[in-house]
């Protein structure tokens, strides 16, 4: 079951999403648009992409959220920043292949999302510790469509 977002998180998500729509990249955040698996309607959420070896990835710090389930159902997504849009396809990355992405993500974004990860898990955690959390915090590679 998806975790309930507290009021401050909802307010922050709305703020970051609004800034992204205006083309203001709040610390590099972008807006992800996915098609709802039940409604068929577009839904957007702020995301923090991370680049690893020239490839762009998304990590789901809050776990098995609606955007994760929707992206698994319909991997065609849109990434927005202001008026710029990129149609992409997401490909889930599993196990040890996700470890370098998780490490870079935590190095870049832990100040904002570290509270959603198990206590003690950081960018300096062992490969085994990072691999152990990938199932709970899915990793997706973005590929331009």
From TrEMBL:
GO terms for molecular function: oxidoreductase activity. It comes from Flexivirga oryzae. This is Deazaflavin-dependent oxidoreductase (Nitroreductase family). The lineage of its organism: Bacteria, Bacillati, Actinomycetota, Actinomycetes, Micrococcales. It holds the Pfam family F420H2_quin_red. Coiled coil: none annotated.
